[in-house]
Amino acid sequence: MKYVIVLGDGMADVPKGPLAPKTPLDLAVKPNIDKLAKEGEVGLIATVDKGLTPGSDVANLSVLGYDPKECYTGRSPLEALSIGLDLDDDDICMRTNLVTIEPGSSFDESVLTDYSAGEISTEESAEIFKTINEELGDDTRRFYTGVSYRNCLLLKHRGHLDATFTPPHDIQDKKIGEYLPQGPDGEEFSSLIERSMTILADHPVNKKRVAAGKNPASAIWFWGMGTKPRLQLFKDRYGLSGAMISATDLLRGIGKGTGMEVINVEGVTGTLTTNFMGKAEAAVKALDNNDFAYVHFEAPDECGHQGDAKGKILAIEKIDAVVGYIRKKLEEKGEPFVMAVLPDHQTPLYLRSHVGAPVPFIVYNSLHPAGCGLEYTERAAEKGVFLDNGRALMKMMTKE
Q: Domain range for residue 289?
């Protein structure tokens, strides 16, 4: 038996905002996903436990069958694993976004207008962080380039840090004053953000971006703080060999931390421009040597944060083609399989942020089709089964 999870990050929505009373799942043309739903089991699953922030970190860990309350130590350390950083127990990591901030009458009055600096390229990001390291780095504070705007700050042997941080995708078009790092150690990081604005104001990369009509990377922004993760190997947990396919350092880090094979696919970006079918082909190939494949797509979430309704619909339709391709290839091989399709959380277009409400899922077993007859939408899923935590998905998929 082969097992596949196709996860559309932030794919679920609510019937409010630009598409009301519909959602992107209602409007997307997705024949392959709907066919899988009608022949399989459909329902709602609570991927984010009560009391936890509805991030992709805790939600994807839960979908993979891990309890975040037991193993989660922060988002950035998982991304650090993907980048290849070797963490000590007393190191602290934090996500360092490149963002666009419009200067105001004072630093506090400045407005964060773009959490991704116009989806800046990884190559441009590397140039900028070379400068940031020269100006703001030292023996214990080093910055590392990830993918696009998603980068990392490593604080060596810091031990403890008393500060709280706000994700930049939650405060777009808002004045930054009340969202700057808080707590006894917060001022240190607020100062670094302010200094970065001066350093980057006339950076050559930004001059080129502005001339091309693109948003500049005018500042760094910290969030997702954490320490060295401790994750049980996926093989030990389920007796299955696994492969992780994703453009994002977060999911790749989860893959590395759980001992999966992390697959590199050419042309993946984490946006609508990603190589969707390249991921589909990689998943099918990975299943030649693995029992399980986790295929993650960031594009619906990015479109949700940007309030891009058309883009979110398009992302779902591209994911539909992936689902159809993987199913067809497994059936051609005569390989029995279980396939799940779901998001990790909601990213409603009208909020442009994450919500931890239950999300719709599909589980299809080729040997035992449930035949529920439901389409794959948020409303249809309300008529199906309910799983009260994310860990229940892997149990449902792997039950005899």
A: 2-72+230-398
Q: Which residues of 95-130 are buried (b: 16+ CB within 10 A; e: fewer)?
A: bbbbbbbeeeeebeebbbbbbbbbbbbeebbebbbe
User: ∠250-177-145 over CA atoms, to 5°?
Assistant: 30
Of 173, 203, 226, the position where a domain reaches its end is 226
Q: CB–CB of 305/347 below 8 Å?
A: yes
Rg of the chain, C-alpha, whole Å: 21
Residue 114 CA to residue 219 CA, distance in Å, equals 11
Sign of torsion, CA 65 254 333 238? Answer: negative
Identity at 185, one-letter amino acid code: D
CA distance 264 to 307: 29
Q: Which of 182, 198, 226 is the last residue of a domain?
A: 226
CA proximity to 59, closest of 396, 295, 353, 391: 391
Tens digit of each residue's pLDDT (9 = 90 or more) over 156-210: 999 889 999 999 999 999 999 999 999 999 999 999 999 999 999 999 999 999 9
d(CA 200, CA 220): 9
> Which residue shows structure tokens 């590392």?
144
For 21-80, how does the pLDDT look when each residue is reduced to its tens digit (9 = 90+)? 999 999 999 999 999 999 999 999 999 999 999 999 999 999 999 999 999 888 899 999
Token duo for residue 367: 């040997």
Beta strand segments in 46-149, E: 92-102, 111-114, 141-147
> Both 238 and 379 in a single domain?
yes
The owner of tokens 């009391």 is 51
Q: Comparing 192 with 228, which gets the higher pLDDT?
A: 192
**3-class SS string, 160-174:** CCCCECCCHHHCCCE
What pTM, to 2 d.p., does this model score?
A: 0.86
Handedness of CA 223, 226, 229, 230 (dihedral sign): negative
Q: Which amino acid is at 346?
A: Q
